[in-house]
Write a structure and sequence with these properties.
This protein is of the alpha/beta class and about 475 residues long. It is about 20% helix and about 30% strand. The longest helix is centred in the middle third of the chain and has 21 residues. Bound molecules: uridine-diphosphate-N-acetylglucosamine and magnesium ion. Magnesium ion binds next to loops.
Length: about 475
């Protein structure tokens, strides 16, 4: 018997209870959209050509979000129910045969291991379908699993259609199914929208298949909290917390110190070396790679960046798509805005912003500076208040500062401009012309002294 798995993820609905303009599956938890999580889980069970997402609301955006994964899409223009979502997928799905696994796009925490266990159970029992159920303390909102006296599953009754006795049952349909594809496609058209919602319920397949003489098996899940769908922003926050907890636990077990881990946000995609310390409220996001022995200060945000070993990131520092060399110190209160290359041993201090800037090893910019579109050599000292004027109102221009130069405090470098190696720029200078190597450049008005001026003014003001 063909037991190859095809996965269909239902994600056409808007998700009214989110109270959002955005389709529910486009909301994020753990740094990714819900649909990305559920697609990535599916890809642990089946190759991309056997994974399909049923899209409807904001299908273009959902399509863009999962495009990189190479999975198929099924367009459900009108949402007439979870059964209907599959009926319209017949052309793509039926020919694939094997086993059809179905779950919902709003369940980002489902572990692939539960899906695999359900599939294994289905292979053993040869039932027409296996549905995952769970005993919930509060099953409100879920379909209830009705069994006969012998304990066999007979039907699933939706919350809105159940009698009080049925609704007292705590065994819920969590919304994860494995069907024998041949049997499913033979009978799917027998679904009828004869319920108050006038929807084609996928859950009615249980009754349809039993009527056709098949058996349905239930796979009771042990840890239901991972399987539950997200319907509102409280559940979204809980899922986000679960992802964050999982990641920081992984990091701590792998040799990273995380202080007050419940406050720290690290995306799943991030790699961190041993003996790095992450302080409270830090966020390490996207495709960031952090070396060994680094220190990420409280409230720092590091996104899509590479930090070599022993980098010190001070509190309240923001680093975006930049590279920082070994032993460099950045912050507190520094901003590496984008596309910066900070060489080993560099010191970037408080209220210094870098944008598209390369700064060579041993250089220092310790206080209050803006360095944009710049190439700065080695062992350069950038004084407090230095500004590269990289924008002329229309275009951005480059500033080059040679190695071993000294830029005095409050220097203004009007780009494009080139400073040779080993030169000095006097404090307070406005530098508009190239400075040759080993020169001193002064670009400021000469100081004037008026002897006794202040005393005279004081004396005059005492006269009646
Ligand atoms: C469904 C189940 C219920 C189960 C619960 C678990 C049915 C009839 N009921 O109810 O037994 O306990 O999930 O969470 O299946 N969708 C489409 N097209 C549609 C309708 C829905 O793609 O026409 C998608 C939605 O985007 C959503 C998923 O299917 O991701 C589930 O739909 P939803 O309306 O949330 O079903 P529930 O009422 O939660
Ligand atoms: Mg739901």
């Amino acid at each position: 018997m063909d037991t190859r798995v095809t996965v269909a993820i239902l994600a056409a609905g808007l998700g009214t209870r989110m109270k959002s303009r955005k389709a529910k599956v486009l909301h994020q938890a753990g740094g990714k959209t819900l649909i990305e999580h559920t697609v990535e889980t599916a890809l642990e069970l089946a190759p991309p050509e056997r994974v399909f997402v049923v899209v409807g609301h904001q299908s273009d955006e959902v399509q863009r979000t999962v495009a990189g994964h190479g999975v198929g899409l099924i367009h459900q223009r009108e949402q007439k129910g979870t059964g209907h979502a599959l009926m319209i997928g017949r052309n793509s799905l039926a020919q694939l045969g094997g086993l059809l696994v179905v779950y919902y796009g709003d369940c980002p925490l489902i572990p692939a291991s539960v899906l695999q266990a359900m599939v294994e159970s289905q292979k053993k029992t040869h039932a027409a379908a296996t549905i995952v159920t769970a005993d919930l303390d509060d099953p409100t909102g879920y379909g209830r699993v009705i069994r006969d006296a012998a304990g066999h599953v007979r039907t699933v009754v939706e919350q809105r259609d159940g009698t009080p006795e049925q609704l007292a049952i705590r065994e819920a349909n969590v919304g994860i199914y494995c069907f024998r594809a041949d049997v499913f496609w033979k009978h799917v058209d027998e679904l009828q929208p004869n319920n108050p919602a006038r929807e084609y319920y996928l859950t009615d397949m249980v009754e349809v298949l039993i009527r056709a003489g098949h058996t349905i098996d239930a796979f009771r899940a042990q840890n239901p909290s991972q399987l539950l769908g997200i319907n509102n922003r409280i559940e979204l926050a809980a899922a986000d917390r679960a992802f964050r907890e999982r990641k920081v636990r992984e990091l701590m077990l792998a040799g990273v110190t995380v202080r007050k881990p419940e406050t720290v946000t690290v995306d799943d995609t991030v790699l961190v070396g041993i003996d790095t310390v992450i302080e409270p409220f830090a966020q390490v996001l996207g495709r960031t790679v952090i070396g060994e022995g680094c220190h990420i200060g409280a409230c720092a945000i590091v996104r899509d960046s590479q930090l070599a070993d022993d980098v010190e990131v001070g509190p309240f520092t923001s680093i975006g798509s930049s590279r920082v060399g070994a032993g460099a110190q950045v912050g507190p209160y520094a901003r590496l805005r984008m596309d910066n290359d900070v060489a080993p041993g560099v010191h970037i201090g408080n209220f210094v912003e870098l944008k598209k800037t390369r700064i060579g090893s041993g250089s220092k910019a310790m206080h209050l500076a803006y360095l944009g579109d710049s190439a700065i050599g080695e062992d350069v000292n950038i004084g407090a208040g230095t500004i590269t004027c990289n924008f002329d109102g229309r275009k951005k221009h480059q500033t080059t500062i040679g190695s071993h130069s000294f830029v005095g405090s409050n220097a203004t470098l009007v780009a494009p401009v080139e400073i040779g190696e080993g030169s000095y720029l006097a404090a307070g200078s406005v530098i508009t012309d190239p400075v040759p190597s080993d020169a001193l450049a002064l670009g400021r008005a000469r100081q004037v002294i008026k002897e006794g001026w202040a005393r005279k003014r004081r004396d005059n003001s005492h006269r009646p």
